[in-house]
Structures are given as structure tokens and as C-alpha cells.
């Protein structure tokens, strides 16, 4: 797909299933870079913060001095956080017994594991509004965060059981669920088209 071959997209690769995001980026023709240190952020058009374990991710951001550079990156370029990535984007974590320090970029509060722990993981069909069209997506909820508060500038793109699960705010996108586990790239393409390509124009 030549539409996205001009883009260089990073995937935070400190922890989590970053390889699946890299796989999907390859499917749509975008260049992908595993981001493990601050220098890897140079020349990227966008970055994806994958699912994983938010406690470990938070610790590793500090260990590798990535927290401030990521916040600086997000001030001018697009970021998509999925599952644990959504937790990291949040302003506040309501059940923060593990002491996760979020990046405080998106004006939301979340509840970690709000849809249940690993044993309660499930797949669901959700309807998302992408590019003014209704799109049905297969969403995998795996220890997924639940939204407890939305700021006034946050736009809901999809809900599950009347709770927001796909959000955008300025150049940020966040999803409670995973869509990278199979080869359906429609949500990735929406992110690249609506955020990354516009930001690099």
C-alpha cells in the first residue's frame, strides 16, 4: 500500500506485544521502528504504545529515561495507546495500587483491569465511527482498562456496553482493546490516515 509508505512509525518496545503492531504496520506498507531509547524517536511521524503490563512499562520508561522525551514527542506528533498504552496516556489511574505513573497526556481517568483480569478476557464486535462511517471491528479485551472520566475535549469513537472504549483528543488516540492480534488493519489505517499523514503533511 503506497498510501502509507512515506510514514515512519515507532512502536514502544520496552514491554508488551509490540511485534504485532510492527507486523500490521508492515501489512499497510509503513516503516516501523522499535523504540527502546530516546534516539529512536528521531524522525518518526507517529508512535504506538502497545498493550502489555502498565506497571512494568511505567518502571521501564523511567529506567531508560523515556518519560520526558515521550511527552515532548506527543506535543507535536501523533500517539496511539492501546490497552496498557491507554493507561499510560491517562491523566489519572483510579485504582493505582501498583503505583503506575501515567504520562498524563489524554484528559481521561481509567480503571486498570476495568473489564476483568486475564481469565475474563473476551472478544466482542464493536461499532466505531471512523472517517464519518460506521465500522464493525473485532475487539479483544485483555485485562482492559475502563474509562472512569472523560475530559471535555475527548471525543468518543466507539463504545462497549455504553462505556467509551475508543477515544481521540487532538493528536492522541486511545483504545481499551486490541485490534492488532489479527490482520484487520482498518483501525491502524484510520490512525495513520487521520493522524500521522496529516501531521506529516
The secondary-structure element order is EHEEHHEHEEEEEEEEH
Choose one word for the global shape: globular
The neighbouring-strand order within the major sheet is 2-1-3-4-12-11-10
**How is the main sheet built?**
7 strands, mixed
> Would you tell me the overall average pLDDT?
92
By helix and strand content, what is the structural category? alpha/beta
> Residue share in helices?
10-25%
What's the CATH class label?
Alpha Beta
CATH-assigned homologous superfamily: Class I glutamine amidotransferase (GATase) domain
Q: What's the number of helices?
A: 5
Regions with pLDDT < 50 over 5+ consecutive residues?
none
The percentage of residues in β strands lies in: 25-35%
Total beta strands: 12
Radius of gyration in whole Å, from Cα?
15 Å
First-last Cα distance: 18 Å
CATH architecture assignment name: 3-Layer(aba) Sandwich
Q: The CATH topology, please?
A: Rossmann fold
| Count of the domains | 1
Describe this structure in words.
There is one protein chain. The chain is α/β, with parallel strands linked by helices. It has one domain: Rossmann fold (3-Layer(aba) Sandwich), CATH 3.40.50.880. The chain is 24% helix and 34% strand. The chain is built from 5 helices and 12 strands. Strands 2-1-3-4-12-11-10 form a 7-stranded mixed sheet. A 3-stranded mixed sheet has the order 5-6-9. The longest helix is centred in the C-terminal third of the chain and has 15 residues, at 186-200. The two termini are 18 Å apart.
